[in-house]
User: Fold this.
Amino acid sequence: MGMDTLVKRTVYGVLFLVIVVGALLYPYGLVTLTALMAVLLSYEFYRMTMPRRYHREKILVTVALLLVSVLYFCVLYAGLPARFLLLGFLPVVAAWVCQLFDGVKDHEFVTEPFFPLVYLLPMLLGLLRLSHVGGAFSWRLTLGLFALIWSCDIGAYCVGMMFGQRPNSRKLYPALSPKKSWMGVWGGTIVTFLAAWAVWALWGAAVLPLVHWLVLALLVSVFGVLGDLFESKIKRHAGVKDAGTLIPGHGGVLDRFDDATFVLPLAAIYLSILQLI
Assistant:
């Protein structure tokens, strides 16, 4: 990596962090971030998988993601009755109707236009739920969880580049991601557990006991890698290197939130079942 590339990657990486962290600190910043993620992530997914067809279905599913996210925010923070979430089904039903008539000559049926409902919506709802702690908005849990995700990513990248690119190093899943190594995975795991302790010591103790931050570190270490590999599978299928070009030096928005696609919903489920949020 050249110096110019490293500088560009660092500058835009810091800018990305500032925007995300700033949005997580305030309720309306959170809903704005979630809405932007709904639009940008679905756009990048469709750009990779099916850029030239099913435009109506893609628009309607994106509207569904946006609508459900905003409605869920209103349920959590504005007292909107949960039954209004059912309005999110309307654009999905409309997309089903469009699918009935698209490709009818060839009896074609595809599921890609609807896949963001499974792939992206749980992450968006998980982000909103994790920001609602004890019946009120709180930035501490979401910021701490993103700190774990980013620490895992940075640790895996640095350790993998230093020790995982040797000829005899074991690769994690070369068919999907040739550069990822087991050394990077273990390095990222160690850094994540250290980050969990640091988050707990700095601001996380007011939200969760240390043992639960360590469990979240384990979830990040395991399912963050799986989320990364899953996005790599989508990119390999599409024949592209990056999901997009919005963040110079880093690729697209989906490239920066690929770990979170698995981690955020699972963390929300874990903490909700134990009634910790």
In short: Residues 3-273 form one domain.
